[in-house]
Amino acid sequence: MSPILNITGATKRFHTPDGKSVTALDDVSLRVEQNEFVTLLGPSGCGKTTLLRAISGFEGLESGAIEIAGSPVTHLPAHKRPVNTVFQNYALFPHMTIAKNIAYSLDVADTPKKEISERVGKMLDIVGLAGFGDRKINQLSGGQRQRVALARSLIAQPKILLLDEPLSALDKNLRHKMQQELKSLQAEFGIAFVFVTHDQEEALTMSDRIVVLSDGKIQQHGTPEDLYRRPKTEFVARFVGESNLFEGHVVEASSQNALVQIGNGQKVSINKSGLREGVKVKLLARPEDLSVGHNADREGLKFKAKIDQLFFVGADYQILATTHDGLAIKATLRPSAQSRDPIGSPRSEIEFFIDKEALHVIAAEAVHE
Amino acid sequence: MISSKTNVDRRRIMLLGLLVPPTLFLLVFFIVPLTIMVIYSWLEPGLYGGVVWNFYDLNYGRILGWADSRYEKFDPVYLAIFFKSVRLALTTVLICLFVCYPAAFWISKMSDTKKNLFLFLVTLPFFVSLIVRLFAWVLILRPTGFLNQALMGTGLISEPLQIIFTDTAVIIGMTYVFIPFMFLPLYASIEKLDMSLLESSSDLGATRLQTFRRVILPLTLPGIIGGSIIVFIPALGNFIVPSLLGGAKVLMIGNLIEQQFLSARNWPFGSALGMIVMAAILVLLVYYVKMMTREDRLARTPSIKEVQ
Hints:
Chain A has about 375 residues and is of the alpha+beta class. Chain A has helices at about 50-55, 100-110, 115-125, 140-155, 170-190, 200-205, 225-230, 235-240; strands at about 5-15, 20-30, 35-40, 65-70, 70, 85, 160-165, 190-195, 210-215, 215-220, 245-255, 260, 265-270, 280-285, 290, 300-310, 315-325, 330-335, 350-355, 360-365. In chain A, helix 2 crosses helix 3 (about 115-125), helix 2 runs parallel beside helix 4 and helix 3 packs across helix 4 (about 140-155). In chain B, strands 1-2 form a two-stranded antiparallel sheet. Chain B: It is found in: Cell membrane.
């Protein structure tokens, strides 16, 4: 099946008043399948919002093409594109009631009154605002506004729903609730959602696929597991989730394995092909991959360290420690169910172990697989 | 308790001290003259100026339709002048609106430094005396003036246009004088307009025209109405512009009132004319206030709790 959204070679530069130009999108190509929840993730200024605005038609491209459902829309104005946007600040019309806001796209398309009121009623039910149709926007809470914005966009039956950091203004509990609601709405409507966020946790939670952008380029795209377990670059490793990165270089390489020596002299054999001898690499271990004590049966990295800070966060302890050779370590440790003793205390000594299977290699120069 | 009581007392005294001077000022310079006007408008004009203390409704009668049958027949000339003034003032309002609306939009989108410069330029005319500025318009509009010279120089016309001392000249002059009054309230409401609403409208399939009609216009309506009222009120009662640019040929209600007080020495009739103008404007203002409070009430209805 052809993709619902196909972007090829999208490039866009902005010119600042002092004559410089900033590349917001640099040869970005992206395909989104029907029914897919794709998240554009990146720090502010990475180009994710520009990409979204290029899809919705608010930013033109310098070069590249955009196809929606197989037909080119690159030069189509925003109001003619079969996509709708949920804006960051919702951009609800303050002078209209909720029902009028939701009906807007139908009103401007001269839909018969009867059909409008039926569809608006149904939509109010879906987003849980039945009976609120006559209220004004300023009588609503943040979460309710969010729902109105969603309803207003979905009623237009877009082929793709674009969401520009729609949850950033909500408090944490409400945000979690809305994340679930967004997922179920997507399942219910069966359309592609393209979601922009700078919150990696949100991206991991919600997405079928995440596209990490930085400096206008796609750094990596893949499933949340892919990005978390197998980041291709240091940027992705650092941006998605917490990370421990150990610098090192390949001392021995065979067709299946590579022996990597890290900064403090420890060597570990990694199950990875395609690395050349002498190549500089970084080894990634997520905080939860660390365990306490030494397991003699398993091969891996060992660190003696001193705990700097220790946080109790309910299920886990989060530990910030410094190894004896000066490496900073982040660990998330879960006490065993049998003994609920504290894992350590600040300034106490601790020994960490990382299984070699948990280590992921990131080449300092790009790896071509 | 005692100290808190004296505290309250002291605050009361302070409040009184602050309120008394403006109250006195308004009483002496606003309420008293207005009362004199109201009373005079119901008194009989004296033969050689001044008043005769008799109740006399024919000042209003002369304007509205019943005249003193001993001296004159009813002549609708005063009503005609009133409606002509309304027409000129409305035309001025409309032209100001059409000039200022796009300009306010344009300026609201500028960078901050440019914005401030243009806002300063809009208020710049206030730095020069109104009379001087209007005489400049006389120089521009008169048959041998700059405008006619320029038009004849380009060959567009062969003989000078008679603009000065016509309604057109008065409208040009009033538009010129009142543009800043229209611009500022309009600008205030357009500045506040959230541009993301325009994107959201277009995102939902609205054309530019639909966006204007359904989003921009209703949201800037308070500015449009506010600016229109602020221009309409002084334009309706204006007598300086018509006397300088309209000459003897264009008479507005303001000129008529001025003549009654200063030349004809018929204070009661002048007062009655003034009351008519004031009544017309009050009707307009009451309507405006009603509309604004309705908007306010809608905005202040307490919000509902988050639906679970």
